[in-house]
Specification:
- This protein is of the alpha+beta class.
- Helix content is 20%, strand content 33%.
- The chain has seven helices and 19 strands.
- Strands 1, 3, 5, 8, 11, 12, 13 and 14 form an eight-stranded mixed sheet that branches. Strands 15-17-18-19-16 form a five-stranded mixed sheet. A two-stranded antiparallel sheet has the order 2-4.
- Strand 9 and strand 10 form a beta hairpin.
- The two termini are 24 Å apart.
- 33% of the residues are buried.
């Protein structure tokens, strides 16, 4: 897993890591803006079959907010739109953060990769065109102010959140600023977790470059680490052979459940789905070679 550095696009980070690992297949599990740092899980080889597993997982971030200044992108890369005086207290900021905990509708920013009529929204924004965006339902599960980072003199504070997929933290920062009556934008963002994966497990490109090929390989996690939220099924030898041949095998459990499947030697085989008539059907299997 990669700890992406500031200013690096997710694709550039992926390609750099791909070259280091000499991988024919590579993919990531969800982009980070160049402005953002932190956890970017990368998949190589057979693991790319499961790269989409984390797209729906909860995310954890630490964000730094500048009060009193709004920008057209809601982050530090944009042009300043307005400056306003800041007259807020620590309690005011805490209350504003708390107001956004829970489920609510968020309007995606114009400077985003979401598409309208086949064109990314940021292309419209760069042309000075604002288009209507449908609000998206998002959830902030947890939010807390890092009080030691609160600085009324500079108008900056740092907060930590756990949120659902599709949440735009820079939009959240701007909305908090409006609730406080002074405006705001996001000046720094660090992703610290996706699902059960944490940035403490990740390594920078600079670290990977300094290692030997063998040392880099030792840092790779098994493909099933992307699937820790799924229950597991352990097959006997006969059923494992059938499954590797693409055949369904008998299994009991709740219908429409996806399972991590293992052979008798505890080797990960892939992901299967249990259908209503009691058959375990293969969805994505890893190569047995």
């Amino acid at each position: 897993m990669l700890d992406k550095s500031l200013g690096l696009s997710s694709n550039r980070a992926l390609q750099s890591a791909r070259r280091l690992y000499n991988a024919e297949k590579a993919g990531h599990t969800g982009t980070l803006d160049p402005l953002a740092t932190g956890l970017l899980p990368l998949c190589f080889g057979e693991a790319t079959k499961f790269s989409g597993e984390l797209l729906n997982a909860d995310k954890r971030y630490i964000g730094t907010v500048q009060l009193g200044v709004t920008t057209d992108t809601a982050d530090a890369e944009g042009s300043v739109l307005e400056r306003r005086p800041v007259d807020v207290s620590l309690l005011d900021v805490k209350a504003a953060l708390g107001a956004f905990v829970g489920e609510f509708d968020q309007i995606p920013p114009m400077y985003s990769a979401l598409k309208r009529d086949g064109k990314p929204l940021y292309e419209y924004a760069r042309a000075g065109i604002e288009v209507e965006r449908a609000p998206r339902r998002v959830t902030i599960y947890e939010s807390r102010l890092l009080e030691e980072e609160f600085n009324l003199e500079t108008g900056r504070f740092v907060f930590e959140i756990r949120c659902s997929k599709g949440t735009y933290v820079r939009t959240l920062a701007a909305d908090i600023g409006e609730r406080l009556g002074c405006g705001a934008h996001l000046v720094a963002l660090r992703r610290t977790g996706i699902g059960k994966l944490g940035v403490e497990q990740a390594h920078s490109l600079a670290t990977l470059e300094d290692l030997t090929a063998e040392q880099r390989d030792e840092l790779l996690l098994a493909p099933d680490s992307l699937l820790s939220d799924l229950s597991s099924a352990h097959l006997d030898a006969a059923d494992a052979v059938r499954l590797r041949q693409g055949q369904a095998v008998r299994w009991s459990g709740e219908a429409d459940t996806r399972l991590r499947v293992y052979d008798p030697d505890h080797h990960f085989m892939g992901v299967c789905k249990l259908v209503a008539d009691g058959w375990l059907q293969p969805l994505r299997l890893v190569s047995s070679s």
